[in-house]
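RECORD TYPE: protein structure
NAME: Argininosuccinate synthase
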Amino acid sequence: MGRAKKAVLAYSGGVDTSVCIPYLKQEWGVEEVITFAADLGQGDELEPIRQKALDSGASQSIVGDLIEPFITEFAFPAIRANALYEGRYPLSTALARPLIARRLVEIAREVGADAVAHGCTGKGNDQVRFDVAIGALAPDLKVLTPAREWGMSREQTIAYGERCGIPSPVSKKSPYSIDLNLLGRSIEAGPLEDPNVEPPEEIYAMTVSVAAAPDQAQTIEIGFEQGNPVSIDGLRLDPVSMIRQANALAGSHGFGRLDMVENRVVGIKSREIYETPGLLLLIKAHQELESLTLAADVLRTKRQLEQQWADLVYQGLWYGPLKDALDGFMERTQQTVNGTVRLKLHKGNATVVGRSSASHSLYDPDMATYGAEDQFDHKAAEGFIYVWGLPTRLWAANQRRR
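PREDICTED:
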């Protein structure tokens, strides 16, 4: 790998990314390190993070508000695709990576950098997402990955930082590794590495425990237009407010916790805890509205492609050709996904209790009813069943002869 002169580093303010700054300069001969910290609605105070990068040796420290594009360009497409990795995880962390990578590349172009860098380790998924996204968007830029190559333990990393004037973490460090944005929190490491250990209540921040949730159920109604959530209880909300409100509602009733063993891109299994109350609530409501507004064959095909879409995003292939093609399919199906879904929130559950679409419901009461209004031609069923069952009867007769 040729040496880089100027690098833009994805920066979080933590130990690893802080140590990356002097390490890139002293060990790898990078002349100038510019940091970028993304505001994804995680609620952190970003000014101290910006200052820490400068104190750690960055020549420039940029903080960028990416909340709105994060929701409209990444979260909402995931809701329209009902994206659940391995049928469960709604990709809250994975969705942020291609956006951060895109902004890193834009900044690199603006400042004339010849490299971008990140502090991901060699075991996680995020290194794959960053490297592949940057390679797709800017194949000419070098990608520097010091934390993947320096071979230092956490203690050694902290000691290296102290020698370079970076203060070690003041508090006794939590044993957990937490990633946070507006869509949710992922919690791993420490005692959670044993998949048989129950997660302690202290790790949760966006959801209350079932025991502490209100005894009274709350019924809410979510409105959708072309597959996008647009209102709660009749009140129209912009996309960012929609996610915040959905988080607050679902979280206050203890809905939105996941505890799963998932298969990482690099081939190992990992025990992960997620809190994604709003995103899971909106996906559940969206799936329900699709059951009313999409034709049976479209719905079945979409369910298969949703799994593939989620896999592609998890595996870092957001900017790839298959994801692009699947987006076209998803977009086309969503034109008729208009209506409302009513859900009852209670003690960790979100139960669908109603769904309606004034313009695109494919549910025909006159066909479905068993009452006097029944319009279904019962006599037609006999001929249909004869033809439908013919292959099975021919096969069964052949088996009997044998």
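COMMENT: The chain has a mean pLDDT of 94.
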